[in-house]
Amino acid sequence: MNSLPMQQPFCHQNIIEVSNVSFAYQQKPVMEDISFAVQERDFVGLIGSNGAGKTTLLRMIVGLLKPDSGTIKLFGQTQNDFSGWNKIGYVPQKNSFNPLFPATVREVVMSGLYNRSKLFKRVSKADQLKCEEALHAMKIEDLAAKRIGELSGGQQQRAFLARALINNPALLILDEPTVGIDVETQQGFFHLIKHMHQHHNITFLMVSHDMDMIRSYLGDRPTRECGKLKLYVKHSHELEDCRETNLTHSLRELRELSDREKASVASWKS
Amino acid sequence: MEILTSDFFQRALIGGILIGVTAPLMGLFLVLRRLSMIGDTLSHVSIAGVALGFIIGVYPLAVGLLFALAATFAIEKLRKAYKSYAELSIAIIMSGGVALASLFFSLETGPGINVEGYLFGSIYTLDDVDLLLIGIVTLIVLVAVGLHVKELFLITFDEDAAAVSGLPTRYFNMMISILTALVISVSIKIVGALLVSALLTIPAACSLVLARSFRQSVITVVVVAELAVIIGLIMAGVWNLAPGGTIVLLLIAMLLLLLTFRRRVT
After folding, report:
1. Is domain A12-248 given the CATH code 3.30.1370.10 in the classification?
2. Which of A144-158, A244-258, B132-146 has the highest mean pLDDT?
């Protein structure tokens, strides 16, 4: 893939670049010769039938699986050279932790900060503040001292989203984030991530079965099809806006904005 | 009562207190990763090493340690071969260890081996070299865990997330295995190979009942194990009971108490 011309706006940098990737599970090909790119501030919905390789693809992108052939670039670097893993927030399909596991919500959210650069460092005041902000943004600050296994499915999903958000990621990868969650919580969740997409400098890659949500936000038709995978893409704003984007949106703002919106909706209804 | 002030009892107490910190700590990581049986496996394999040490005339605990280390690598290899049946590899290595131990014991014709002492513990025979070894292992474990408690937590809770964060998970898995092998091989003389795993797993079982946070569970396992070791050794000394067995029965008693007490609360 040739590089983009220089006059292209900054926001059209490729965040994920999948080139000619093939993968097989025990000789059974799951995907063959897949290529696509995700650009900065895209919201990409990944749709496909069971066994189409959605989860496999996400796991390859975050480096948990190695493609049999082809390359994956993150933020313009090949995975081997890539070191900015803290720029990526990943929420896997199902967190299969033991419900008895002794860990509080706060400890789980905080663990989003434990990466290579933190290896020999202690948890600082600033880290604790980040954790409180992530808890606050996901509205789970009241649950912070609870054991993670005591939470409901939707609350757990919020906790894992908070863990993914604590580093202020530039790329958020979500694998069926609403499986096993009731409809009302699902809607709240989609509202939240749509909001993050529109107001924050975050690029999204999300696997979902929820066609209603995908269609309502990303449009009726897939922008691309590669193999059995369909990609629905929405860019969050006009190109000219790019340079003005405030990169330091804090999680606190996120909560304030969503609270304000809720308040205005409520007052409008009454 | 004068046993309590005797030299060998004091040594036993120091050794016990040191192991009472490290064994439950490593046990907590193993239990939370659903690898409770690894303690048993490594200790059974160590026994084979101890027996070989007697035959070839090398410090037995050191040979036991080498065997335990070899077993951890073998388990890891087998675990990869039988991915979703991790416990299978543990069962295979365990029986292999016992088979090897019995073979070595039968080869040894002299009066050299006190088999019972290694199976059920012989804490009163701790000498200065044993104590030094236990001290070094304790130091290594405390430094390693103290330095990396965050990363060990994440790897135990969610290994995938740790890998995505760019943590060297293979290095940490290896570290947990090696530290466990170290702890088990030095614990053998204290509670015996057949009982070591109790010291690893029962405190962790208690912490699952009690602790809400990971921090609390780390504290709980050490407190529970220390209580059992100290009270158990004193009881065993005063009433002339088997120390290893007393400690383990005390641990089980504490777990039962916790379980019944909790049922009343909730």
Report:
1. no
2. B132-146
